[in-house]
Amino acid sequence: DIDQYLNHMSSSSGAKINALQDGALLRSRLGFTGSKEFGSGYGGAFTLETGLNATNGTQADQPNANATGLTTSGRLFDRQAWGGLTTPYGELRVGRQNAEIQGNGNYIDYTARNLGSVVNSFGVPSRYDGDVSYTSPRIAGAQMAAHYAIGGGGQQNTSTFNQGVFQLRADYITGPVRLGYAGLVAKAPNGAVHGNAVYYHNVYANYDYGQGTIYAVYVRSNNGGGALNNTGGNEIGNIPTVVSGSNATVGTAYDIYQVSADYRMTSTLRLGGLYGKIKDTVNSSGSATGWSVGAYWQAFSNLTLYGLVDSIDNDSTAGFGLAGSAGLTKNFSGANLVGQRINGVQMGGLLRF
Question: Could you read off the pLDDT of 153-197 as tens digits, one per residue?
Fold first, then answer.
């Protein structure tokens, strides 16, 4: 997949950014996936994915220092690297996998929880090392999935580190209605300065009315305020650790409310709109509101062209910004972000091959 877009953003501070960015709808990547039937309803499957920045050719995962102070080299398959067993009773996977919250964006809003989504501006836990998952078959409209990420690199799940990420998803479909929950809880290391468990709970509902879909979502999380809002360091991290236990913002809970809808003008053209609010339950000046409108044209079977207008308005101490599937390589920060209103106009295309 190659996804690139022209991005014009302005801050109420007066600052402006014009840039070519990667990954409005889908982070550019090179991937390999396959499956093999063993017989009697059993089979194997795998996925290997490496993210890249299509604007300059660099790999997505760069060397970095983790919570234990170790410097890690950029990994080849930073997005997913798992093998699995499919059975009549469900699917078992092991390896580096997308979080359930990350993998179910299509049910969250008209953007598939990407550029233009307020939920995405708050931040979404993405994927974890050493993850063991089970997904059930869908029975009478219901399906569930459960994960436990032990972690990778020999650093997690030891007497001193004691890390782990638990995930659960429950999804139910009846006619045009879908209801679901996707959430996780992550433990901090033993002896962490801020040892609170980090949580992210997401409840969603949508209704297909024939010409489009209406979406509603509610998120409750203490993983914000510089944790996963694209402006600061991670509390629940994706590469390569899970919870550092060093971020005091775990004491702050956020409520995110968002509604959106889309309308299929033709079989290839879809329009959508969205409104959402991020509420800091401890400090009201840390809240923000946002909206977007967008259009998606399936020009060819493997080419999607899109355009969006979006905005997020930060209260005096909030610092939430616009965010796509990939992080913005050119973005506002500091006085140009905190307490400011950020407006954006984006046009681009997603090529799948």
Answer: 444 444 434 567 899 999 999 999 999 999 998 877 777 787 788
Residue among 145, 147, 146, 149 at smallest CA distance from 130: 149
What are the percentages of helix, strand and coil residues in the chain, rounded to 5?
A: 5, 50, 45
Q: Is 105 helix (H, G, I), strand (E, B) or coil?
A: helix
For the full predicted model, state whether its pTM sits above 0.70. Answer: yes
Rg (CA), the chain: 20
CA 191 to CA 318: how far, in whole Å?
A: 30
* In the block, residue with structure tokens 């598939």: 112
Ranges of beta strands (E only) in 64-115 are 64-65, 71-72, 80-87, 90-98
- Cα-flanking dihedrals φ and ψ of residue 107, to 5°? -95, 0
Tokens of 200: 């992210």
Among 225, 230, 227, 237, smallest CA distance to 328 is for: 230
Instruction: Summarize pLDDT for 13-66 with one digit per residue, the tens.
Output: 999 999 999 999 999 999 999 999 999 999 999 999 999 999 999 988 876 655
Omega prior to 240 cis, within 30 of 0:
yes
d(CA 8, CA 96): 34
The first and second tokens of residue 221, run together, are: 């999380």
Query: For residue 197, what is the DSSP state?
Result: P
Burial pattern 142-164, b for ≥16 Cβ within 10 A else e, equals ebbbebebbbbeebbeeeebbbb
User: Cβ(137)–Cβ(41) under 8 Å?
Assistant: no
Q: For the stretch 1-11, what's the b/e string if a residue is b when 16 or more beta carbons lie within 10 angstroms of its beta carbon?
A: bbbbbebebbb
